[in-house]
Amino acid sequence: MPLEILLISQDLQLANQLEKMLNAFHIKMRVSFEPLEHLLQQISGVVWDLSSIALPNNASEIQIMRSQVAGPILLLDKSGEPVETICRYFLNYHLDDYIQKSSIREVAARIVQKVWVYQNKDRLQITKQGQETSNLTAGRLIVDLDRFQVNNGHNRLSLSPIEYKLLLFFISHANTVLSRAQIASAVWGNTSGATLRIIDTHISNLRKKIEDQPKNPQMLKTIRGFGYLFKVENKTASTSQSKS
């Protein structure tokens, strides 16, 4: 099933900008004023723009949405809600994130990351408790899934959105040979969205950032005639919880 986000907003400029950003990751988007008009079971996630449409006073409507959406529900705001109100959203309705509407690029990145985690939650087995941060560890690489940050030991890496998504895919399929078609389908959304040259270029760029010797890689290896292998000592990617 193709990924599709429901944006609840009256801000057409926001909708147009966000749609273009999400299309780059092959995530479709539809816009609505009334979330329950849609078949929520078919939605990969919901983004609610509080600056244009307030949450309903009727709590049951939010609870119905939460029970039917098998993906993240994110609140988007421009002015910033009081801390008590934000806490109530998360504690009472089990929503996933609260984003202040400052950068469309950041908003899109958070949506892509949250959707990806939901789509791969069985593999990642991520649990969150209180204010703890979800970390995904593979060898010496540590991925902070809440902040979109990757550390190689004590060194912070600067990854593009595609490189970040590639790395998460490789870690979740550690020690498994992956074809370019599998990589294209997972990262670009389909096998026609990326040519072999594009895939190889992005993987080469990622390798330069995570390997000490990119020409003699120890983690991200090319398996000639088959694809790529992300090799880690512990055969499964693990998650750990660390304080913010």
Automatic annotation (TrEMBL):
One Pfam family hit: Trans_reg_C
A Gene Ontology biological process term: regulation of DNA-templated transcription
PROSITE patterns: OMPR_PHOB
Domain of life: Bacteria
Keyword Ribosomal protein attributed: no
DNA-binding region: 133-232
Keyword DNA-binding (UniProt): yes
Protein's recorded name: Alkaline phosphatase synthesis transcriptional regulatory protein PhoP
